[in-house]
Structures are given as C-alpha cells and as structure tokens.
Amino acid sequence: MSGELYLTDSEKMAVARAEAEKGAAEGGIPIGAALFAADGTLLGAGRNRRVQDDDAAMHAETNAFHNAGRQRSYRDTVMVTTLSPCWYCSGLVRQFGIGRVVVGDDQSFLGGQEWLAENGVEVTVLNDPGLIAMMGEFIHTHPRLWNEDIGED
Length: 153
Hints:
Blueprint: H1 9-25, E1 32-36, E2 42-47, H2 50-53, H3 60-68, E3 78-81, H4 87-96, E4 100-103, H5 113-118, E5 122-125, H6 129-141, H7 143-150
C-alpha cells in the first residue's frame, strides 16, 4: 500500500477509512489516517491503536506519521484523517509543518483544525455522511472509551 499513488481527496480518504474500519474490527476506536506526499504518493497509513496497543499516544495521525518513516521535510505533505484531529495530533501537524489536512468528519468532534487553519495549514473538511455515522455509532455505543480517548472524565 505504501508508495501507491492517490490523486483525489476522496481516494486518499478511502485509505484512512479502511484504517478506521480495521481499527473497529480489532475492537479499537474507528479513526484512521494516512500521510501523503504532494504528488499523492502514500507515505504511511495508520489507525487509532490506543486500545490494541494499550498505548495512550497511538492516535491515528501519530500511527500514520510513525508508519511513514522519516521524511526530509513535511511541508508539502497531506495528512488525511477520518475525524477532526485532536489537540495532540494538531500539535504533531504544526510541529512538523505538515502543509495540508483533509478531515472526513468534524461533526462528531472538533479538535484543533481551526487553530491549524489560523496558523497557515490548509484544512479541507469533507463531512462524509458514512464517517459521521460510523463515529456517531461508536460514541453512542462506547461513551466511556470515547471520553477516555478525548481526555474527558
């Protein structure tokens, strides 16, 4: 999968969605992400693995970033995520200068995407009905796990 070319935001989001679906099938939180080069080459994909790995830091964006390996620069990369990035993942985007973020759903949760946009990151919101439904169902079915993931008591 890594190294393949994805030209449209929809094609890129399909990679992140597949990761979210894998995470759900594993008993985890259904959030997926993928990091792409400017030309659409997939650098790395990942999913929220907090439950599976018993690792509070393994959000979808951080997993995708980790799986992409070292890059000389991140300025021209695109982070695609099924859910608006939390403050932790928004910090990763800013720290490494990722130039663009594509969000599949900001209705279920609104993280730091407005802060990213205010600080020069290009943010595109798709609000895909299928992703909104998937996250809404998860939040309804697993409220304690969801609150743990977003740092709520």
